[in-house]
Amino acid sequence: MRSIVPLVILLYSSAVFATERPNFLVILVDDMGYSDPQCFGGEIETPNLNQLADHGVRFSQFYNCARCCPTRASLLTGSYPHRVGLGRNGRTMDLEVPTVAERLKDVGYQTAMTGKWHLSELATTSVDQDRIGWMNHQVDLGIPFADPRSYPTQRGFDHYYGVIWGVVDFFDPFSLVHGNHPVPDVPEGYYLTDAITDYSVNYIEEFEKDDDQPFFMYVAYTAPHWPLHAKPDVIKKYDGRYDAGWEQLKTDRFMRQRKMKLFPNVPIDPVIDRGTPWNDLSDDEKEYQANKFEVHAAMVDSVDQGIGRILDALKKSGEYDNTVIFFLSDNGASPEIPGYAGYDRNGETRDGKTAHRERELKLPENRYKLGSAESYTGLGPAWANAANSPLKYWKKESYEGGCRTPFIIHWPAGLKERGGNISKDLGHVMDIAPTCLELAGAKSAEEFPMDGVSMVGLLNGESADPERMLFFEHMGGRAARHRQWKISALAGKPWELYNVERDPAETTNMIADQPTRLDDLRYRWEDWLGQMPQTNPQQRNVQAVKEAQIAKQPVKLACKISTLDQNGVIVAQGGSSQGISLHIKDRKITFNIRINGKVTELTTPTLEGKGPVEIEANLRAGGKLLLAIDGTTLVTGDCGGLIPVQPQDGLSINDDSQSNVGNYGDDFRYGGKVTNVRVQGLSEKINPDKDEQASSGDKDAPNFIVILTDDQGWGTTSIRVDPRIKESASDYFRTPNMERVANAGMRFTQAYSAHPNCSPSRAALLTGISPAAMHMSDIVDRNSGRLYEGNKLNPPQHVNQLDPQLSTIPELLKLHNRSYRAAHFGKWHLNGGGPEAHGFDVSDGTTSNREGTVPSNLPDDPKRAFSMTRSSIRFMEQQVRDERPFYLQVSHYATHLGYQATADTIAELQGRKKGRRHDSVAYGSMIEELDRSLGNLLDAVERLGIGKNTYLIFTADNGTYPTEDPGNVNGPLRGSKATLWEAGVRVPLMIVGPGIEAGSYTRTPAIGWDILPTICDIVGVKELDDQVEGGSLLPVLLRQPEASVLRPREELYFHWPHYQHEKKSKPDSTVVSENYKLHYFWESKETQLFKLSDDLAERENLAKRYPEMTQQLKAKLMKYLEEIEAQLPVPNPEYSPATDPALTR
After folding, report:
1. Are strands 632-638 and 579-585 parallel, antiparallel or unpaired?
2. Which of 330, 370, 829, 1138 is deepest in the core (most CB within 10 A)?
3. What is the 3-state secondary structure (H, E, C) of 52-66?
4. How far is it, in rounded angstroms, from Cα 393 to Cα 400?
5. Which residues contact 1020 (CB under 8 A, 6 or more apart)?
6. Region for residue 225 given its phi and psi (left: phi exceeds 0; alpha: psi -120 to 50; beta: otherwise)
7. How far lies 1130's CA from each of 788, 861, 1057, in Å?
8. Which letter does DSSP use for residue 666 in this model?
């Protein structure tokens, strides 16, 4: 009897229990369709899988990574494949990342693996080596199939028998290995599926010799991956079963799925076929296609037979009841029809017989060879779509047909009460590793936390976390899942939005009905992808370059490449059915044209020089081909005609992102730079893209980072903003990173936002113009309701967007120096077409308050503070790589209402001693998260080494909202946001940069519209619009003698002609002149005067004491409002106290 691990005791309650540590058996099949097994709606005979389903738990919403290598890496590491080096197919899994097998070995488990490894980059061969002969078993190159350090026996498995490569002949497989040693020959009658089963049974028998140790076994069948190879007697079982075609198969399977309640909430039949209609095929073509699926069915049948033998071995050993069995597929059924020999595909059998491809197999003399070693083909898209019934698309895609898998967990000793259940909980292949580790009492490696989550709670009957999000990306295809919602997209295509619980086939795009939901999920996906260390560097390019209509018309494909010394795919649009591509190998450039599965290649002679070179490839009327280099046509050819059907695969650069147009592999990626890409259908109007190269300009110009927080009061940091005033620092909130900024530069004791509300102050910061002059006197999109109706005065109808005619900071910087790039992340709230319409190159879009409070903000990303900082850091890193100066504005959603913080920070503040002035856990937690995100950005500036040439400006858009006691948060200032009292407009302002004295402060008044002229002064912009009201702070920052801020007017003016009843705010205009501040209240026509140097809280009205000064300041205020043509409140002719919102609340 094995020793009991204490951790497992927690499983004894409810359904999950065990008396000893369980064994683990992971069975992974290859390219199996979602509906292929009978227990998931299929007709293929799978009695052993049915047995597992009847006594285990089926998951109807379980996901893989849509492709062989990524799924396998995710399974073994418990992480997204991008994190471990397998965001793309065909790479070597990161050797430093521990596998679940290694972790289990550490706690006493025996381990073994059989079948397909496919986690090692394939061996390279030199030009003079016969690679195809090597794969045909006719030449021995004497080299390993891949780096032996990456073999299974070096990654935690005690025993291994299987294939290192991903695509092999089933009757005589290449890259066959036993342990670390190649297997040079196989016996007569060999079939790989059976051999994998044989060794799996042998290893179970070996494990039983040491009964004190549990085991972990990973069985990775290569079936039913192409080539379609099966044993004749099994193929015969399915003779004639698929003569009705793919539409009928998909429909029949879906009806069975409905009956077994796999999709109980689907209101409509989602059967949509994506191949040629069956009835449009000739009789010969129907027969051939039906025969192909018969072979596929036989391959699945043989896998099930093998699983039955493995289950029998477990029963015989006595380990069946306490073995946790996981069954799944690595991706959906495959649409691929493989090309000709090369890269990883053999062309002949060992004895020299041809392995016929699709076109030759359709010939009468070869038809009988289908399924044998003399055939080499795949299902194609129509059958793949049917095999994935009712799901959309297939392998490689992040739509459901590519990444949703049949999944079964079977464990008699632990699931006695749940046998036969169907779980609707979300799960992912990366959850298997943490589940095994928890049940085994093992810990995941602290240095490499897993992305997956343990399913032990689910097995115990607990509910899954409903807020969990899953993300997908493979070679440009992408998706994100949250609750019932999923966004999906093909490479180079726009996002689509689906409710996959009601619409699992993704038939009804709901973007028009749910645009904000799409924005939220897309934001989360982009943030996730940005965190992945192995992100494809061309990802953004893949999505940004527009594909062309290339069907039924001549086509031109042009681009520029940086070097001839790199091999790989340059540009591709389309895939294994239709498409065009360019690739380079050994300094020869090839134009590939694929029409109805047949590829024509046009290849240049060997090119001289190093590059760069310009390439132009033309497909002309009648199929005439031309390939020109640097304007000279080097080779011509003929492919017989035009591309007949627009390919579904999108456009990709530097690789062939989905199924391959040419005869190369998935990892054949060009290592140089590709620019000026143009794909044009020549019946369209030609509009060449502009050169993407950098324009001229000073690349050594300074960088600017503006951190704009939301509703952050003057005294809400742990910085004593004014050294004379103790209350200008919080006695409860801790903001060490804001202190870092203050200690590194200059803080302003009397800094103002331009307005007491967000939109107007943001517009003023970007333009240097007062909100009153722009007629933006309130937030955009608020022009009606109780704040505008029934009041004593009628507020003006203000503008609802940032005027596109006004110049912004990034526009002025670029006009002065075209090297500048600009980004805006976070809250925009200015409409006007979003940041890109006002000089920004990159942004989060036309955002507002909503994005900072939506439930989809993840628990570890409150107010999106950390994700927008990550975006900011990525932007800075890119500009450093490109050697460009930049303007970066990080406009936080914190500390606006809708308080969000992590549980850990909330707990920390709850345990902290309350301050006398500040004690709000909710607000304090939020501002401390904001501070942490600021620290991450400051650390990045230091890491990138750009601090000496970067100005950082930290400020807020207005004061704090009075949800908390205003005296609590905003004190010692009077009022709050949406008022012109000091608490509404006095904000933190700290500036760090070259020549600014560290730890300094100034009492010079500053305002938000000073930022634009300050930045312009720093870079040398001399001419500003006459409307600009701000002045440069640079003389003050540099502590020049008798420094001052030169504005068109000496005073600072504020205009608030609106009501905000919740804040007890009425129309008010204000002027600040030296130490004095005057309010004019439009409703009562009262003036109030305060001396701020003595009375910061604005308690003592000095208007009667200083009538002359009061009149002078009032006159200046009215003159100012007249000069800028400010909008004023006017009497309401229908006013009645009975309907006054301020009196009837």
Report:
1. unpaired
2. 330
3. HHHHCEEEEEEECCC
4. 7
5. 816
6. beta
7. 12, 45, 9
8. T
Q: What angle do CA 457, 460, 464 make, to 5 degrees?
A: 40
Cα 1025 from Cα 812, distance rounded (Å): 11
Phi/psi of residue 490, nearest 5 degrees: -80, 160
Give the Cα separation of 506 and 398 in Å (integer). Answer: 11
H-helix or E-strand spanning residue 74: helix 68-77
- 308-to-122, 194, 207, 952 alpha-carbon distances in Å: 32, 12, 19, 66
Contacts of residue 96, Cβ cutoff 8 Å, sequence gap at least 6: none
Q: What is the β-pairing status of strands 477-482 and 588-595?
A: unpaired
**Residue 802 in tokens:** 């940032």
Q: What is the DSSP string of 566-600?
A: --EEEEEEE-SSSEEEEEEETTEEEEEEEETTEEE
Cα distance between the two ends of the chain: 74
Element (H, E) at 1114: helix 1107-1123
Would you state the structure tokens that stand for residue 278, as one six-digit string?
A: 């069956």
Cβ neighbors of 733 (< 8 A, separation 6 or more) are 716, 717, 718, 918, 923, 924, 927, 928
Q: Which two tokens stand for residue 468?
A: 């969990």
Q: Which domains does the chain have, with CATH numbers?
A: 6-463 (3.40.720.10), 539-681 (2.60.120.200), 703-1131 (3.40.720.10)
Q: Beta strand pairing status for 886-891 and 703-709?
A: parallel
Can you tell me the distance from the alpha carbon of 922 to that of 909, in angstroms, rounded to the nearest whole number?
9
DSSP 980: S
Q: Is 670 helix (H, G, I), strand (E, B) or coil?
A: coil
pLDDT digits (tens, 9 = 90+) for 885-914: 999 999 999 999 889 999 999 999 999 999
Residue position matching structure tokens 């050994």: 586
**DSSP structure class, residue 664:** S
Q: CB-based contacts of 22: which residues, under 8 Å, 6+ apart?
A: 214, 322, 323, 324, 411, 413, 414, 439, 440
- Which amino acid belongs to residue 33? G
* Alpha carbon distance 143, 124 (integer Å): 10
- Cβ neighbours for 694, distance < 8 A, ≥ 6 positions apart: 818, 819, 882, 884
Q: What is the DSSP string of 1014-1041?
A: HHHHHHT-----TT------HHHHTT-T
212: number of Cβ within 10 Å:
9
List the structure tokens of 681: 């259908």
Helix (H, G, I), strand (E, B) or coil at 119: coil
User: Could you say which DSSP state residue 356 is in?
Assistant: B
**CB distance 56 to 27 below 8 Å:** no
Tokens representing residue 822 in the block: 């600009």
* Exposure letters 657-680 (e unless 16+ CB within 10 A, then b): bbbbbbbbbbbbbbebebbbbbbb
- H or E element that contains 247: helix 246-259
Q: Judge whether 292 and 379 are in contact, CB under 8 Å.
A: yes
**Cβ–Cβ under 8 Å, residues 560 and 674:** yes
Q: Token pair of 85, please?
A: 């080096």
Name the residue among 794, 758, 754, 762 with its Cα closest to residue 778: 758
Q: Are 216 and 113 in contact (CB under 8 A)?
A: no
Which residues of the chain carry a pLDDT beneath 50?
1-18, 535-544, 684-695, 964-966
Look up tokens 């031109």; give the residue: 556
Beta-carbon contacts of 652 under 8 Å, excluding residues fewer than 6 positions away, are: 475, 476, 491, 492, 538, 542, 569, 571, 572, 573, 658
CA pair distance 518, 648, nearest whole angstrom: 22
The two structure tokens encoding residue 307 = 């699983």
Q: Record the tokens describing residue 361, joined without a space.
A: 């197999």
- The side-by-side arrangement of strands in the sheet containing 1076-1081 is 1052-1056, 1068-1073, 1076-1081, 1086-1091
Nearest CA to 742 among 704, 701, 702, 707? 707
To 5 degrees, how large is the angle CA 1025–CA 1031–CA 1037? 140
b vs e for 970-982, b when ≥16 Cβ sit within 10 Å of the residue's Cβ? bbbbbbbbbbbbb
